[in-house]
User: Fold Pre-rRNA-processing protein TSR2 homolog from Rattus norvegicus.
Amino acid sequence: MMAGAAEDVRLLFGAGVRAALEAWPALQIAVENGFGGVHSQEKAEWLGGAVEDYFIANADLELEEIEDFLGTVK
Assistant:
């Protein structure tokens, strides 16, 4: 894959991750109600980047590995 195409794929993947998190009702309720403290919105934005980076750094992930990762993110 060419460098430009790889960057396009990463940008699209990142947009998909953000869209999924923005559509996640429990996360949105947590942010709206400040469950993460005064920086709830920043933490939600960080989560999107962390998920994107995790997928990019780890090829061929199994569902259990993703569940474990999401369970340890704080």
Summary: The helical segments are 3-22, 25-32, 40-57, 63-72. The mean pLDDT is 93. The chain has one domain: 3-72. Residues 3-72 form one domain.
